[in-house]
Amino acid sequence: MKKKVSIGIDIGGTNTIYGILDREGNFLAQGQIPTKDHQEIEVFLAALNEKIRLSLRNLNNRIIVEGIGIGAPMGNINKGTIEYSADLPWKGIIPLADLFKEFTNLPVIVTNDANAAAIGEMIYGGAKGMKNFVVITLGTGLGSGFVVNGELVYGHDGFAGELGHTTIRPGESNRQCGCGRKGCLETYVSATGIKRTLFKLMGDMIDDSPLKGVSFNDLNASMISDAAKEGDKIAIRAFEHTGRMLGFKLADVVAHTNPEAIFLFGGLALAKDLIFEPTRKYMEENLLSVYKGKVKLLLSKLNSQNAAVLGASALVWNNIENGDAKKISI
Amino acid sequence: MKKKVSIGIDIGGTNTIYGILDREGNFLAQGQIPTKDHQEIEVFLAALNEKIRLSLRNLNNRIIVEGIGIGAPMGNINKGTIEYSADLPWKGIIPLADLFKEFTNLPVIVTNDANAAAIGEMIYGGAKGMKNFVVITLGTGLGSGFVVNGELVYGHDGFAGELGHTTIRPGESNRQCGCGRKGCLETYVSATGIKRTLFKLMGDMIDDSPLKGVSFNDLNASMISDAAKEGDKIAIRAFEHTGRMLGFKLADVVAHTNPEAIFLFGGLALAKDLIFEPTRKYMEENLLSVYKGKVKLLLSKLNSQNAAVLGASALVWNNIENGDAKKISI
Q: Domains of chain B, with CATH numbers?
């Protein structure tokens, strides 16, 4: 008997990764193409489709593909579009599902990459059995996926869960965001955000740090994490400030939807205590008493290498199992 | 044939109002008792029960009571409790549903007063047919009820929707909140909040205003509203500031759950343009482009005199119609 599989695609700012997975989340094949190098969406999709086609050919006669799930920044499940993403090379509204129809007759489901991660966490990760939780993805930007009463929150227009673009305080902030506004949470809390914080702190603090020998362009978040682990005061302060901003806004998340747990996912989350301790401290500090000590702040249980693809592929199973045909654009 | 009715009770900081209503939301009887005068919950409930019993006696033989719905600040649907309310005379955890059992065998459903208002808006008001919306109640404090995918969001512990206790900015604020913290949204956006803003503005501005002849204790929000309508600059500025704070935090609400509409309910909302215009302006200013111009900011369609009671009574029908027995504490 042929094995039922789904194709999961994670479109990121730098690379696009895909996988062919069974219902248990096992990868039968995977691959990637660079996103950045393709300034035209049609060329990008043709290249991606060609790669996937080769992978499928190698599995020939052994599988039935049930659908394609795509996670992308500003992906919209209602319309199958990517809309005004600040992180991708394609501007405006991209009718992704429709464009994909040129290549396939399969159902194509498009959503926000963080929503895909939340579905993945629910089906394969630490949120199994939970009805109310939130996943925060910390990559180049900050994404979020909310699950309420066991269902992903898409909202009226399909754009729920943009925690990265809530702002830190009323009025002007110095931090410009790729979205065109200022002071968005992701300008503080993301791989890019902590780098910006570190550079501001290097302007304020006189402590020695090997990071003072690295340019803005060369620095990345894991260098900050490594330095902090070796006791670098500026790097530690940068994590503290990042956790302070995240904890502050997570307290709002709790007041809105009162989740059982909040999962942190992605590069920064792997810094563990460095990010979890200040985040937990400032979240608790900002919580109303009825919530204090009750909301779990957890590391995602999905392997971060594959999680976005796993989540995207899980969209297909989630859709089939919920019989939610209206959310499938063909 | 006897008419099926439910009893709706709205426990407010000042008064507790109840109504006996049919499924169409018609009041067959109503009444109230002062909340503040009863420092002991048992005495309060005995007095309330006695009043309701008399109302029921007058309707004798014509009705069947299906249940009792109670909206109260910090009301918890899972446990039937009121927990640590800053607005009521009873401190700590009050096992409201259990205490009510002394008087009745009917199902008793307890929730947050703003959640009750949201259910009322969905069943009888402007949110009929909407699947994703938020109701903001502006009274002595600020409450909120979130509806996602057609269901009220209670969250894991039953305390979702405490927008009034999200904070305006990270770090210290001057405004003390009844909840023991500082800078909560309701210290700015509520009948009390706008009064506090007005008094701070009277310290800053040299414009003449008849409100300068009124003490803090004597001033109320409708006096500020009346003054603003007559062009009082300080009062107008107070509304502007109130709308700025509300709009700022509503932008977060949109980024979290992407509702179709946000309803404003209660005294301050009746100031119409005075509050709606700045709120809409600052909400739009803080929205990510994908949301701009899409979220309706509407005046509640429930008559504010009766709305909280209507909402509380609607809890009973909502429960019966969803067959959601687990949410009924007997």
A: 3-113+305-327 (3.30.420.40), 126-299 (3.30.420.40)
